[in-house]
Amino acid sequence: MATDFQPAIIETPKKPTAVSINPCMHKNARHTRSYSAMPLPLHFINPLRLRLRIHRSAMAISLLVQLPQPWHFLLLLAGLLLAVVSYLLVTRRDPEERGLRLPPGPSGVPVLGNLHQLGPLPHRSLRDLAGRHGPVMLLRLGAARAVLVSSASAARDVMRAHDADCCSRPASPGPARLSYGRKSVAFSPYGAYWPDMRRLLAAELVGARGVSAAWAARREQVDRLMSALRNAVVPVALDEHVFRVADGIIGTVAYGSVYGAEAFARKYERFQHVLFEATDMSASFSAEDFFPNAAGRLVDRLVGVVARRERIFRDLDGFFEEMLEHHQDPARPKPESGSGDLVDALVGLCEKHGFTTEHVKAVLVDAFLGGIDTSSVTILWAMSELMRKPRALKTAQEEIRAAVGGNGNGNRVQPDDLPKLAYLKMVVKETLRLHPPATLLLPRETLRRVEIGGYEVPAGTRVLVNAWAVGREPASWGPDAEEFEPERFEAGGRHGKVVFRGAHMELVPFGAGRRICPGLAMGVANVEYTLANMLCGFEWAVPEGEEVSMEEAGALNFHRKTPLVLVPTPYAPPACEC
Q1: Which of 142, 177, 180, 280 is the most exposed, fewest CB within 10 Å of its CB?
Q2: What is the pLDDT of residue 369?
Q3: Tens digit of pLDDT for each residue in 153-185?
Q4: Would you state the pLDDT for residue 16?
């Protein structure tokens, strides 16, 4: 979707493709893969497949013309049925809304509601709409009711004052299938199961075993990155290099050393392809998300979305099953207590708490689809901003090299050095403010009627928090809210005590309250450690005659539209003058 809503692309189930609604985005490299579930209740096209989809669309139209006449009639009937039923539902006033002081919002159109107003960069389009209608805004997404929050004060109502009443997740067919019936921490509705599983996952990620395994993986992957950059032909497209670091860390923590082993190479390539398809599926429009169940499911089935979803799920499940069999092989040496990988820990928890293998697989979906792109996207945005601010780049490098000079490890940053790097932490914080990994946080759903920003919101309403708009709100950040200024977080300054761990609603890149990201600490450590070593070990420059583009593109996580191409020169410390 560029400015107008695009009609559904209809193909035969033999080679189904998703219904694209965003054909204007460009894809670069594998880095742009996104692993969080959708930050708003709308799926977008994965840009990597744009040209292929355009070609397939033409083929689909040709195939449609060749369909027997009964198929023409059935497809036409299904389309008319969806339009009529959706129109009735969109225009019908929900009984729960009667007598309530609902938030204001833009006028919609029949059937679509406000879907056509989201645009290719919905976080920007929605901020513009909020500028006209207010920071708490009512939207009609097809037949679904949603409230958009675009200010720190309104976010406080959602994630603190009424967190217990706004902490469930709306059902969505794609994520529900991928998460084994909403068994993952990210997609599970609020209930007795969710807090128990979240506590167990957080304990494994930030407990002693998880922390130790993560640091070992970080050292290994960053060593490989530094070696690759030293031996690369310049200029270097950083996207693929940075993505491999994040992927390697998550994979090693989850599966152990087998993830990077030579014997795993063929399976690794297949797994990457399956993950790519799973992300592509999550980034595709599903009629059932916004329209009546019967009509939406019928359309999804006719255009091949359901068949494609099932095939991708089987492929992903097959890989997870292989890894579980490997870990449960009687011939495999049993890891010592507390020394296994994430799968070992989860298998042990299953035996202890009565969980099934589906619970293990659902948590692995959380780890891979939620953990990889968050780190790589943030590192690339941080490098982009620093290249446009030479003063900030120099300050960060001088601080890091001064700290590293006395650690006895040459030009390598060690975990113990990170607490000393105050300016680097300000750079990361400012990057997360301007470029949150998920510009719109995963949608919440109200369990009961609540008041947000002085307006009444009925139970069963989707609540979207525009973290990107909140992080750029002039009321919180001042007239320079759009500028990259790490110094704003200096100790003693106006924002010196602001943190992104859920305590301050003006900075919520990972959410807050009960639904805050459980892997926050691990992801931030990945970013800080990787970025610190890149800045310490190399001098960085933009290729002569070029500029760093800051254009965005994406589906779930909004990344750079074009690859970040830079010239790294290995740093040589000045000779000691004695």
Answers
A1: 177
A2: 77
A3: 999 999 999 999 999 999 888 889 999 999 999
A4: 40
Structural domain includes residue 16: no
Q: What is the pTM of this model?
A: 0.82
The token pair at 364 is 């692995």
- Binding-site members are 517
A 10 A CB-CB count for 52 gives 10
Which residues sit in the known binding site for heme?
517
Pick the closest to residue 432 from 373, 507, 370 (CA basis): 507
Where do we find the tokens 């998920």? 438
> CA–CA distance from 465 to each of 14, 320, 565 (Å)?
38, 32, 32
Domain with residue 121: its CATH number is 1.10.630.10
Helices (H) and strands (E) in the chain, counts: 19, 11
What Cα–Cα distance (Å) separates residue 369 from each residue in 14, 46, 58, 251, 556? 27, 14, 31, 11, 10
Q: Is residue 44 part of a domain?
A: yes
Instruction: Tell me if 315 sits within 8 A of 274, measured CB to CB.
Output: yes
Residue 388's domain comprises 30-570
Measured CA to CA, the distance from residue 259 to residue 252 in angstroms comes to 6
Sign of CA dihedral 372, 373, 379, 380: positive
Name the 3-class secondary structure at 407: coil
